[in-house]
Specification:
A hairpin with a 2-residue loop joins strand 3 and strand 4. The strands form four sheets. This protein has a three-stranded antiparallel beta sheet, with no helix packed on it. Strands 8-10-9 form a three-stranded antiparallel beta sheet. The chain is 43% helix and 21% strand. By secondary structure, it is of the alpha+beta class. It contains nine helices and ten strands.
Length: 182
C-alpha cells in the first residue's frame, strides 16, 4: 500500500496488477477510453491481435486458439530441427471461454463489468448466468471492496489490489481444478 501511495504521489496512476503509468501514457489513455487489454505479456493498448511466441514454453494466441511451445529445450530443438512448429499443446476457445475471457478482461483492465454490455454481446442475462460467481464475490462486497448491483460489478479503489482474486471467481477451469482437488 505504501509503494502505491508513493508512486501516486510521484504522479503515476495505478493501472492494475502491479502496473503504473503517467496519466498521459498510452496505457492510461487506453484505460480511460475503455480500450485497455491484457494478455500474457501484461497490459496492452490494443487487443484482438495475434501473438506469435518464440522460445521454450512460450504461448501464442492466434484468433481463438492458444498454443504453448515445448517446455524443454531438447524437445523444442528436436521439433525445430525436423522443420515442425515446436508446439507442445494447444487449445481452441469455445463460446463459454470467449465469454469468460471477456468478463475477466473487463474486470482486470477496467475494474468494472457492465451487465448490459455482456447481455448484448453474449445473449445471456449475466446476473442469473453468473449467480454462483456473484455469490462467491458477496464477502468482498461485504468488506467494501466492490459493489454488485443490477447494472454490474464495480471494484472500488481498495479492492483493486485484489483484482486477481475477483477475476479468479470467473475462471471456470480454475474453479473446476479446485473442486477436483477436494
Amino acid at each position: 500500500q505504501f509503494a502505491i501511495h508513493t508512486l501516486e504521489q510521484a504522479g503515476y496512476r495505478y493501472i492494475g496488477m502491479d502496473h503504473f503509468a503517467k496519466p498521459d501514457d498510452e496505457l492510461a489513455r487506453a484505460q480511460d477510453a475503455k480500450k485497455l487489454q491484457r494478455n500474457f505479456q501484461g497490459y496492452s493498448t490494443h487487443g484482438d491481435c495475434d501473438l506469435l511466441a518464440l522460445g521454450v514454453s512460450s504461448i501464442s494466441m492466434i484468433d481463438n486458439v492458444y498454443v504453448q511451445n515445448a517446455k524443454e529445450l531438447n524437445a523444442y530443438q528436436q521439433k525445430m530441427d525436423m522443420g515442425l512448429l515446436p508446439i507442445h499443446k494447444g487449445f481452441t476457445l469455445n463460446d463459454e471461454d470467449k465469454l469468460r475471457r471477456f468478463v475477466i478482461n473487463r474486470l482486470i483492465c477496467h475494474c468494472e463489468l457492465d451487465f448490459n454490455e455482456v447481455a448484448q454481446l453474449f445473449d445471456i442475462e449475466p446476473s442469473s448466468y453468473f449467480a454462483r460467481e456473484l455469490a462467491q464475490l458477496a464477502p468482498m462486497e461485504e468488506d467494501g471492496l466492490l459493489n454488485i448491483d443490477r447494472e454490474g460489478i464495480k471494484v472500488h479503489n481498495k479492492g483493486r489490489l485484489l483484482i486477481r482474486c475477483v477475476c479468479m471467481v470467473f475462471d471456470e477451469y480454475l474453479q473446476q481444478a479446485r473442486q477436483d482437488s477436494q
